[in-house]
Amino acid sequence: MDNSAAAYWKANLRLVTILLVIWFVVSYGFGIILAEPLNAIRIGGVGLGFWFAQQGSIYTFVALIFVYAHQMNKLDKKFGVSED
Amino acid sequence: MDLTTLTYIVVGMTFALYIGIAIWARAGSTGEFYVAGKGVHPVANGMATAADWMSAASFISMAGLIAFNGYGASVFLMGWTGGYVLLAMLLAPYLRKFGKFTVPEFIGERFYSQTTRAVAVICLLLASITYVIGQMKGIGVAFSRFLETSYETGLFMGMGIVFFYAVLGGMKGVTYTQIAQYVVLIFAYTIPAVFISMNITGNPFPQLGLIGSMADGSGLTMMEKLDQVVTDLGFNEYSTQVMGSELNMFIYTLSLMIGTAGLPHVIIRFFTVPKVKDARTSAGWALVFIAILYTTAPAVGSMARLNLMQTIQTGPVGEETANLEYAQAPQWFKNWEATGLLAFEDKNGDGRIQYYNDKDPEMAAKAEAFGWKGNEMTKVDRDIMVLANPEIAGLPNWVIAIVVAGGLAAALSTAAGLLLAISSAISHDVVKGMINPDISEKSELLAGRLSMVGAILLAGYFGLHPPDFAAGTVAIAFGLAGASIFPALMMGIFAKGVNRQGATWGMIAGIGVTMLYVFQHKGIMFIPGTAFLGDMEANWFFGISPNAFGAIGAMVNFAVAIAISKVTAPPPEHIQHLVEDIRVPKGAGAATGH
């Protein structure tokens, strides 16, 4: 692997790692592990932990994929590995 | 017009629409018939993927599970959406760059071995067929209600239609049919949800109704009311009840997520998008369309539960007249009794229905004082909740008819997609790839059709004795895919050092451990009575349910694959170059003919 390809791969892994940490925190973190304490905070009629488990995590997942797609397109251009 | 006639008309119209579109699209562009995703905008492709993805489990079964498991059912909500994040970031763009026909084909080339490819085919078949069993359960429930017959007859009818539908051929390739199916199923799901949310909370958005206040002037929020109603009858508090344990929920969610990213019928959709770039956004759009249903489902589940409880328990617990008289039971109650999926037994002979948790000692003691002789709702199949929901809420007949059509659209689109994945694995990977490379296209097609018939019969047989509710059965399928295919694909892309021995034994160990655990608790091949340990929490490994065990299988897979690769010869140089090549989008060829 030449230098630019290696750097591209490294930047890619960095981005994915950050996004997957968020992915983990909103679902497994807020939705399961910390659900009980978070339920003390209310969002409308439900606890915040419950809300993250049944609503919030899903909205976050959608946002994560679009952020990923956008950032990767930028990386593709920066490293000159874009398809077009 | 009575409900049955109306249902026939609506279902008939939607079927005519799907078939019409299929014929029109085929006539319009025969040449491009197999290139489903090419030239199709990522938004449209995302919508089609969503239809492919959301099955009877999502449409019919999931809200029922939410209704009875409350917070615990969050595993399905997070598990079946979070997997798309993994798919978009870890697999889809790379598999698109590789640009081949099937999942086993990628595994076979990356691990330079026909044996590895064969193992991948077996894993794919095990997961897909289990998945189809889950669909069959859902289809059986929908048809039994729709035709007012027993579950078994409904199942046989469903098998016939799936057969006709899948063998009509190439339907899956017609992206536009799936877009129509998505539109039907999403309207069918959200219309009743909007009505019910309006009735109960006064808010037309189910997502807001879920966190809103009751419209009955009680001043309670919807969730407070629901918690109160269920705990008064000895059931677990809705908003906090966990599924098994916190650990089980964690593992269960993980298992569903990696299963999502390992199921072949979803993955192959990303082989056909025009560009690597589109593989990334397509996954995002698919999740947008899936999220519309998935964020509505918690409202549907909770409100259905509230309606059901309040229909039977009409006033304060313990007051004699507060229990619904059986003779006064609404029509939907009688209709579902006819299917055998809802059952009532007047244990204390008072002509009224007592529905409570008789397993709860405190409630049982109270009930005895009331003169109740045990819970009289002896069967409430979770899978009926979505279909019964509009009837319970007293919505007009046309809404109910649309829901049936939506359930069938969901079940059929996924069943057909899976059957095509099964047939392509057998005809393309086994027959053409391994047995007879010179086979004519016609014979390859015939082999595909025959394997489809075999899969339908097998799934129908198991559908008679499903190991679990539709969503539970599907969860097992996800476990199998997550334990075998997902790790192999991921290591294929991210771990250059994993070789063919590692991948082969990793998959065998991963799926083996998972199957052993499932069979141990649910019976060998799901045959009742052959389980050597009962399917109850006391017997579970660290309290992890069989449906959730795929994540453990995946960990075993990763561990075995990496360990074996360390002690055997590394992959040859050209494979290392192949991996480096799929990691960059540049130079991706046109979409594979599919």
Walkthrough of the structure:
The complex is a heterodimer of chains A (84) and B (594). In chain A, strand 1 (42-43) and strand 2 (46-47) form a beta hairpin. Chain A is elongated and about 55 Å long. Helices cover 79% and strands 5% of the residues of chain A. Chain A has a two-stranded antiparallel sheet with strand order 1-2. Chain A has helices spanning 3-33, 35-38, 48-78; strands at 42-43, 46-47. Chain A is mainly alpha-helical. With 594 residues, chain B is mainly alpha-helical. Chain B has 2 domains: 3-307 and 392-467; 320-389, no CATH class. Chain B has helices spanning 3-28, 42-53, 56-69, 74-98, 103-110, 114-146, 151-167, 175-201, 206-209, 222-232, 246-260, 264-267, 276-312, 331-339, 361-370, 385-392, 397-435, 441-464, 470-494, 500-522, 550-567, 573-582, and strands at residues 342-344, 377-380. Chain B has a two-stranded antiparallel sheet with strand order 1-2. In chain B, helix 2 (42-53) packs across helix 13 (276-312) and helix 7 (151-167) packs across helix 17. Chain B is globular. Chains A and B meet through helix 1, strand 2 and helix 3 of A and helix 4, helix 10, helix 11 and helix 13 of B.
Give a brief outline of the structure.
With 84 residues, chain A is mainly α. Chain A has 3 helices and 2 strands, in the order ααββα.
Termini Cα gap of chain B? 44 Å
- Count the beta strands of chain B: 2
Biggest sheet: strand arrangement of chain B: 1-2
Strand content of chain B: under 5%
Round the mean pLDDT of chain B to the nearest integer and report it: 85
Strand line-up across the major sheet of chain A: 1-2
The percent range for helix content of chain A is: over 70%
Query: What is the total number of structural domains of chain A?
Result: 1
Q: Which structural class is indicated by helix and strand composition of chain A?
A: mainly alpha
Please count the beta strands of chain A (DSSP E, at least 2 residues each).
2
Which two protein chains have the largest interface (Cβ within 8 Å of the partner's Cβ), and how many residues from each? A-B, 45 and 50 residues
Computed over alpha carbons, the radius of gyration of chain A is: 17 Å
Fraction in beta strands of chain A: under 5%
The secondary-structure class of chain B comes to: mainly alpha
Low-confidence stretches of chain B: 27-37
Give the topology string of chain B: H per helix, E per strand: HHHHHHHHHHHHHHEHEHHHHHHH
Report how far the terminal alpha carbons of chain A are from each other.
Answer: 21 Å
What are the secondary-structure elements of chain A, in order, as H or E?
A: HHEEH
Q: Can you summarize the main beta sheet of chain A?
A: 2 strands, antiparallel
